[in-house]
Amino acid sequence: MPTQTTNLFLLEDLEDAGKTSELAESDLDALHAVADWIKSYVVKPHKDLGRAGPVCPFVPGACRSPTGTCRLSSSS
After folding, report:
1. DSSP label of 23
2. Structural domain count of the chain
3. Quick one: CA dihedral 33, 43, 18, 20, positive or negative?
4. Where do the DSSP E strands lie in the chain?
5. SS3 of residue 35 by DSSP
6. Among 74, 76, 71, which Cα is nearest to 7's?
7. Cβ contacts of residue 4 below 8 Å, gap of 6+?
8. CA 45 to chain centre
9. Cβ partners under 8 Å of residue 74, min gap 6
10. Which domain holds residue 34?
11. pLDDT single digits (tens) 19-64
């Protein structure tokens, strides 16, 4: 039966090599892609949304607290 592991990272953790040094480069690249998408899209207003404010109004606050994490799960 495969073993599943899960690692949680705050967005700022992704910039700390000491916290991500054990990750495979492809996993770190994937986490950076998600973090970049959150920072460039999800927390920003969008003209097609039909209202003011970020795409998801809950994410900016979550990014400033320990609840805003990126999760990396893998099976081996």
Report:
1. S
2. 1
3. negative
4. 4-10, 69-75
5. helix
6. 71
7. 73, 74, 75
8. 18
9. 4, 5, 27
10. 4-75
11. 899 889 998 999 999 999 999 999 999 999 999 999 999 999 988 8
